[in-house]
From TrEMBL:
This is Molecular chaperone DnaJ. Residues 108-117 have a biased composition (Low complexity). Residues 1-31, 47-69, 106-136 are annotated as: Disordered. It comes from Frankia nepalensis. The lineage of its organism: Bacteria, Bacillati, Actinomycetota, Actinomycetes, Frankiales. Residues 56-69 have a biased composition (Basic and acidic residues).
């Protein structure tokens, strides 16, 4: 059972509550109404919905990718116009289109983000066949 004043998903509390806690990963709405609220009324962006696209020191990139994909798929199932009640299909279609735009933007940002350690000067992986030695 939820505590009084608790929220269904992070970031839906008061400004003071949200400022007091770090923003976690992807949002997890549980109904068409929540998806519509996040996408069309609140106008949240891809980072708020799917989490950061760039790798972080404290996050496993594969786990972050899986969590983002899971969040997208859950919202897509809820907002897909084919499963929405007949009277809600136009609104669901708008939410689904916006969700798709944001997911594509998130994927582009993830693809263009530097790989973990690329900018930090880490040793990286060794070359196949060992290091290159002088000579042509």
């Amino acid at each position: 059972m939820r505590q009084p004043g608790s929220t269904i998903f992070p970031g839906a509390g008061t400004v003071a509550q949200d400022a007091a806690r770090p923003m976690p990963g992807p949002r997890r709405p549980t109904s068409l109404d929540e998806v519509i609220d996040l996408l069309l009324r609140q106008g949240l962006g891809e980072r708020a919905l799917f989490g950061p696209a760039e790798p972080g020191e404290d996050r496993d990139p594969d786990a972050a990718r899986r969590a983002a994909r899971r969040a997208y798929r859950e919202m897509a199932r809820l907002a897909h116009p084919d499963v929405a009640p007949a009277g809600r299909r136009p609104e669901a279609a708008r939410a689904f289109a916006r969700l798709t735009e944001l997911w594509e933007a998130h994927q582009r940002a993830a693809a263009s983000a530097p790989a973990r350690g690329a900018a930090g000067g880490g040793p990286g992986r060794p070359r196949p066949g060992g290091p290159r030695r002088g000579g042509p």
